[in-house]
Design brief:
This protein is α/β, with parallel strands linked by helices. The chain is built from 16 helices and 16 strands. The longest helix is centred in the middle third of the chain and has 32 residues.
Length: about 525
């Protein structure tokens, strides 16, 4: 099923992911290629000259937090006072909404970042209040778009920006570059690139073309950064340098946890810290939020797994007053565990179910749920992730319709993991291999870390590790060659002496000056 791999075959395979080659920052398109960029820039410059009141409206995820921080830092750098708001997930809902309008009355110019393209009613309210509105967003446009002064969104048909998969922070970065050019001021764009790289990774943009160039430049800037927040994070994580995985698995969840558990403003305040002492205190708060998020997520995941109907092709589970900030992560975990799309809903106690869904495999979760709109109160999202609400009396009808829609979609279950690039023998695992893999970093969406499979491997040792024994450390043997492996977040029990097939990525483990190779185990299939 899987071809035996040579280093040359692996290099060819990885090269083929980058048909356009590796772009550099010199290859970045001009800001003016965005529709309405020049128009928006001119209006913001006018507002600065006329000393108008400007308010930035962000979003509570990492992309929204970093976009807001970028704009805040830029206006601080040019010494122009602005206000900024990030809606509270629990009180305000998403993005520019009717709930936000009373808080921005008196604003002359409102600028959204990472949201606003669906805010038709809120835009109308802005107009009624005499608030001029510029929308910067990267999401898909609905049939009706908001009426406002300018819209910068690469998904607009009339937009000439050549890349469709960019995040909100990238558009904010481009807006800052455009303002810098228009105002003929000298500012260094690299410190802004640091935060933009964090957002590109966290928002799971494909790490190819422009995104790869910006992430590589951003990570390089992060590792030279004088920003107190980055210094505090490096100090906390006991790392000398950051890579894309550190951002995706450690920094991004910390930043996200503020909006999930309380208020995303705390993440902005952390990133914008002006000294190391404030940064440490603010990071400590995020760590507390993240620990609470992990505990809540684990508790709800356990409850959801206990309620799964194994006959359903799309898992739908509802519970009473589950934390709305973590149901999306729980849905993702359950989807991976059962290898099926999953929707997790929380009953607010008054009969309204609100929640999130995550897809699995080829299933277009947005499409099959969209056909159930008659049962839903609110609904939005994309192919892989959705948000929705419905009344409890509609739940059973919704679940039935969803299963029918899935069946009609004729989705083929992937028996083969597309990220497995080939079969590898332990004798071929070397530093030469890891150097080759490193050459094509950063890995993530659109450029997945190469996974390998080794067959007929014996488990010599399988010990629990971690505070609560939630991880496993292995010793594996294949024809007398022994490799160490680690599997994170698993409660599986494996018998020593078992013969297995192992799916893994290869990692260089740096510890006390020693560098060793280890397998990061993704899946273990027992053969006998």
């Amino acid at each position: 099923m899987y071809p035996s791999l040579t280093l040359q075959a692996l290099e060819t395979l990885l090269q083929n992911r980058f048909k356009e080659g590796f772009l550099s920052l010199k290859g970045l398109p001009n800001p003016s290629t965005f529709k309405d960029m020049d128009k928006a820039t001119e209006r913001i410059v006018q507002a600065i000259h006329n000393k108008e009141k400007i308010t930035i409206i962000g979003d509570y995820d990492v992309d929204g937090v970093t976009s807001t921080t970028l704009m805040k830092l830029f206006f601080e750098e040019i010494d122009y006072p602005i206000e900024w708001i990030i809606p509270n997930r629990f009180k305000d809902g998403y993005g520019l909404s009717a709930n936000i309008i009373p808080r921005i009355i008196g604003t002359d110019l409102a600028i959204t970042v990472d949201n606003g393209i669906s805010a038709v009613y809120a835009a109308k309210l802005c107009k009624e209040q005499g608030i001029e509105l510029i929308i910067t967003d990267h999401h898909l446009l609905a049939p009706e778009v908001p009426e406002c002064y300018a819209i910068i969104d690469q998904k607009q048909e009339e937009c000439n920006f050549p890349y469709s998969d960019v995040c909100g922070a990238q558009i904010a970065w481009y807006l800052i570059a455009s303002l810098k050019n228009a105002m003929k001021i000298k500012i260094n764009m690299m410190p802004y690139m640091e935060l933009t790289a964090i957002a590109i990774i966290a928002d799971m943009m494909p790490l190819q073309h422009i995104n790869r160039a910006m992430v590589n430049a951003g990570i390089e800037a992060l590792n030279k950064s004088r920003r107190p927040a980055i210094k505090a994070f490096l100090e906390h994580s006991q790392k000398e340098a950051l890579n894309a995985e550190d951002i995706g698995f450690f920094l991004a969840p910390l930043l996200n946890s503020a909006g999930r558990m309380d208020d995303a403003k705390y993440a902005v305040e952390f990133l914008a810290s002006t000294n190391i002492y404030d940064a440490r205190v603010r990071l400590g708060r995020l760590v507390d939020f993240n620990n609470a998020r992990k505990a809540t997520e684990q508790e709800i995941t356990t409850k959801v797994l206990a309620q799964v109907n194994f006959e359903d092709e799309v898992i739908v589970v509802a519970g009473k007053e589950w934390h709305e900030g973590v149901v999306g992560i729980v849905a993702a975990r359950v989807a991976r565990h059962h290898e099926k799309p999953c929707i997790v809903l929380s009953n607010n106690g008054e009969g309204l179910l609100k929640g999130s869904g995550r897809s699995f495999g080829e299933c277009d979760l947005f499409a099959i749920t969209n056909s159930c709109r008659s049962h839903l109160e609110k609904f939005g999202g994309h192919q892989a992730a959705i948000g929705l609400s419905l009344y409890s009396e509609s739940l059973e009808a919704f679940k039935k319709q969803l299963q029918i829609n899935y069946a009609e979609g004729n989705y083929i279950k992937e028996e083969v993991d597309p990220d497995i690039v080939g079969k590898l023998h332990f004798k071929d695992i070397s530093f030469e291999l890891t150097k080759l893999v490193q050459k094509y970093q950063p890995y993530g969406q659109g450029n997945p870390t190469p996974k390998f499979i080794s067959k007929n491997v014996e488990i010599l040792q399988a010990d629990t590790m971690g505070k609560e024994g939630e991880h496993l450390r292995f010793s594996f043997s294949q024809e007398g060659i022994v490799m160490v492996g680690v599997q994170f977040k698993t409660r599986e029990v494996y018998e020593v002496g078992s013969k297995v097939d192992v799916v893994y990525t290869v990692n260089e483990n740096h510890f006390r000056g020693n560098i060793t190779l280890q397998l990061i185990v993704n899946k273990i299939m027992i053969t006998y």
